[in-house]
Amino acid sequence: MKVNIDESWKKHLNEEFDKAYFKDLVEFVKNEYQNHTCYPKGQDIFAAFDHCKFDELKVVIIGQDPYHGIDQANGLCFSVKDHIAMPPSLINIFKEIEQDLGKPFPKTGNLERWAKQGVLLLNATLTVRAHEAASHQGKGWEQFTDQVISTISSEKENVVFLLWGGFAKKKAKLIDKNKHHILTSGHPSPLSANRGYWFGNKHFSKTNAFLTTKHLEAVEW
């Protein structure tokens, strides 16, 4: 089955595209996009993979659902398009980077610049109906993205997995802890962050410290 995803990922995921659940998922997504407003745009559904080549991948950040507001989602978890107001979770991510690394608050919430440095910004569900959070959950995306995580775990080594919040932490079971580095904390959403579960986790400096010990280039957050 032909799927419009970056070539570097195809050899690792081609078998998945031919499975019955994925074919059903494709039909569901096509129908949703034809009959409803959905996000992200069709060409951006696999943007996380298109901007982060498999061979260059060194960090994985796991989100749950794309943003469902008008023109927010760009196919990368936590990221928004240029000139779109930053959602609260993203603001808290940048506040932590500011505290952790002393970097100034950025002008854009578009995280393509991270992806191009080898950060896979992976939502567990890659599509959503406008203004209906979680509307595409349980349709097959989670099976696919779990396979992505398992494939990264088995085929690569020394990848940093950033698991923020209860949902992401459950993905730890898919990751070989002897080959990779896992960092966990609360979610950057205001509810979690304001209770003290997010700020001060220093995940960005810790990630770079680990990468440096493995002679890999640090991420310019």
From TrEMBL:
Subcellular location field: Cytoplasm
InterPro entries: UDG_fam1 (IPR002043), Ura-DNA_Glyclase_AS (IPR018085), Uracil-DNA_glycosylase-like (IPR005122), Uracil-DNA_glycosylase-like_sf (IPR036895)
Any Pfam family matching the protein: UDG
Keyword flag DNA repair: yes
PROSITE patterns recorded: U_DNA_GLYCOSYLASE (PS00130)
Domain Uracil-DNA glycosylase-like: 49-211
UniProt-listed Enzyme Commission number(s): 3.2.2.27
Chief place of localization: cytoplasm
Reactions mediated catalytically: Hydrolyzes single-stranded DNA or mismatched double-stranded DNA and polynucleotides, releasing free uracil
Record flagged with keyword Ligase: no
Highest taxon above the source species: Bacteria
Keywords of the record: Cytoplasm, DNA damage, DNA repair, Hydrolase
SUPFAM superfamilies, per the entry: Uracil-DNA glycosylase-like (SSF52141)
Active site: 65
Family, as annotated: Belongs to the uracil-DNA glycosylase (UDG) superfamily. UNG family.
Function, in words: Excises uracil residues from the DNA which can arise as a result of misincorporation of dUMP residues by DNA polymerase or due to deamination of cytosine.
Protein name, UniProt field: Uracil-DNA glycosylase
Lineage: Bacteria, Pseudomonadati, Bacteroidota, Flavobacteriia, Flavobacteriales
